[in-house]
Amino acid sequence: MVLTPQKEFAVRGVNGIRRFIPQLRKLTIFYSVRPGAEGIREYIDQHVVSLAKKHPEVAISVLERNGWIPSMIGEYVNGQSRKVSLKKMDVPKIEIQVKQLFGVPGKTAVFRKQWYTDNPTVQGNWTPFLNPHGPYNLRAPGKRTPRVPRAKGVPEL
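-> structure tokens emitted (157 positions)
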């Protein structure tokens, strides 16, 4: 006897407990009639209707802006948005950009510094190569710098 799971128990998306929650809420496509926008106009004619039927949860709007560079703006659930320039792109490249907008969670990466200080220096961070002569150019007040043997032909400082 073969058991098959019912439809309601089938495993669905990854980011929800029982269902998939799409992150992209609105996709706005801007195009113009100027040269360099042939790919986006062709994509709009051929693929936008099927994209809207495939993803009914996403509001897709197409706006003409003459004189502007063709672009897409994806707005996400968390309020973030991403803008992608489509200048001089053909249809396969535009499809890749649309898939990336649908697949990105909308979060921006947070890069943290390795150190923190309340009083940042104006001169920059210390590196081992900052003082070329090492500890010999640092001296206590009233003391002489120890003499360093130099190679022949190197002038004294």
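The first strand starts at residue 24 and ends at 31.
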